[in-house]
Amino acid sequence: MIIAEPPETAVRHPHASLPLTALGGRTQRIALVGLLAVVIGLASLAIVSTRSASRETQKATDAASIASLYQDARFYATRALALFDQYRIDRDKTVGDAADSVVAKLQHTFELLSRIPTQATTSAGLARRATAIVAMANESDALAASGRPAAATRADQRADAAARLAIGDLSRLEADAHRDSQEGLVEIRGAATRLGYATPIVLGGVVFMALWVCLVLVRDRRRMTSLATTDPLTGLPNRLGLANLVTRTLPADTDDPGARSCALLLLDLDRFKEINDALGHEYGDDLLVEVAGRLRKATDAVGTAARIGGDEFVVVLDSAGADAAEAAATGIRSALCTPFTIDNIELSLDVSIGIAIADSRAPELHTPSALLRAADLAMYAAKEQGGGHVRYTAELGMRVSEKVTIVGQVRRAVDRDELVLHYQPQVSLDDDRLVGVEALLRWDHPVRGMIPPAEFLPAVEDHQLIDRITHVVLTKALRQSKAWQEQGMRIPISVNVATRALLNASFAKEVADLLAEYDVDASLLCIEVTETTVMRDSARCAGTLNALHDLGIRLSVDDYGTGYASMAYLKNLPLDELKIDRSFVARMTTEEQQRILTESVIELGHNLGLSVVAEGVEDADVCQALHAFGCDVVQGFLYSRPVPPEEILAWSTSGITPVPVMVPAQRAGIEDVEPAR
Ligand code: C2E
Ligand code: CA
Ligand code: CA
User: Fold this and answer.
1) Gap between the Cα atoms of 31 and 39, Å rounded
2) Across 2-64, where does the E strand assignment appear?
3) Which of 99, 401, 611, 615 is the most exposed place for a label (fewest CB within 10 A)?
4) What is the pLDDT of residues 205-219, one digit of tens each?
């Protein structure tokens, strides 16, 4: 039984919180480190480009000033040479002074050049050459003054040649520096261009990385959300996905009668557990995947399917009223009831569907959890009626909730060992002897006293709790059998078992183990199965019945006559006993039809080789009639009501004769529980 969890709980889904932060954080870290690396790389590129640009600029500036200084030097040198030429004509002192002043400027220019590290040596050499030329000019001056004009002319010629040579060198140096400066400019332009590219690349890179990080984070979040909300086996939304889906689909305006409605169908696969247990989980998984596929196909056009548990699926229908929801349920059933073939094994399923509709008429169903709980209660009712679909109503909800409450109380009763067995004698009509007892369950409630099985067993019949109860009953009955044996009595005990026990493949083994544990002979145990059970699930019960029979346990068909079982059918089962339902027995002396029926059942039973037991024998007339028809055993208030075990001992040793009708009434004090029927 699944009751919807509120969305807050669903959000605490293990997939939803823990890995989300863990994985998100890791990706974030990786992305950030990546971003940082790229930004650092690109920024370094920009810095390198900038620095190379500034270096080139420095070089170009230096080259330009060198070129300009050589240009000055060349100018001064040319000017000085011209002045010397003029001076030589008449050795005019004014011209000589002007030449000296120009030479001083030339030397100053060389000094400026020598401060530039690359030019220090060259300029020092040039300065020396200038000094030498001036010395030659002075020498010629002195020779001319001393009246040696020819020597003076030779000195002049030497100075002139040296000066022209120096001017040529200066021109070359100027040209070199000029070329360097031009080249520097080209370099600067290149660096600037590189910078021009690098800057947008850095910016673009940063923007790209930021976008990439955002994308990674968004994609991761999406992936995690989808992981947390999807069932990995079938790919359908899981419980959390469903909660989100329902929240989105629920109509907002609950009071408006014209507002759209939303329907939720809760599906439970009948028999899935059996298939899973019998064939293994791989088959179970494959089957679930197939089921999901068919479900998706059947509901794609009208809604969304989800898987919320083992074999529980939900379909959410947007804008669907009762008719549309019921039509969808019918469609889903016919899709899922067509047999599945998995690994060449044909598997049939049935499905129980609970429908809950959120519209203006059901304001109590306007939260996802309320809607799911309502669908769950309706599904429970559908299961109870043996499949198909049931729509939730407030009245149905109340009835089923009550039942669910009873299940809880019975579970506690089992836990607290409040279940007890009373025993009703079965008497042989041939010799009036006690031939056995039927164990009948009671709930010894601390406040309400003895509660008959009809008040609590039906509520747990389809519930797995009945398996525990069956185990408790068998244990108590066999323990009692053992106790009686120790007191010298071998009293066969009949135990009623529910349909579920026979559908359980390990039931026969469980019984065998208990027989061994309490050291009870199998022939002392009779298992009663109702006719309805045998008829409804015959094929599936047959295996367990045969296994029990093989153990040597007697098998009895209970409430015979209520289920219209065909004798031909019963013939194929390993039965030992037929119990005629008390509704026939009670009326057999007053209604001719019942008398004929009872008589023919006894005869048919004998023809099949079965011992016939009549239940509910309350008066001596009935008893006599049954005896006349050849009925083997009777059980009923005429002899005794079901009583606590200690009374059976006294009863059995008292010597048995059918007691007058009044006696059961006197014995009524023993058992204050009235049978339900
Ligand atoms: P049942 O197996 O048909 O059991 C016989 C029922 O008829 C018992 O009701 C018994 O008290 C009642 N009864 C016996 N003689 C007479 C009589 O002369 N007149 C009338 N009117 N009734 C008589 P009880 O004990 O209330 O049990 C009701 C049903 O509960 C049982 O019907 C059986 O189907 C079920 N049940 C009882 N114990 C167990 C159990 O341990 N396991 C299961 N699965 N079902 C049980
Ligand atoms: Ca019975
Ligand atoms: Ca019965």
Assistant:
1) 12
2) none
3) 401
4) 778 888 888 888 888
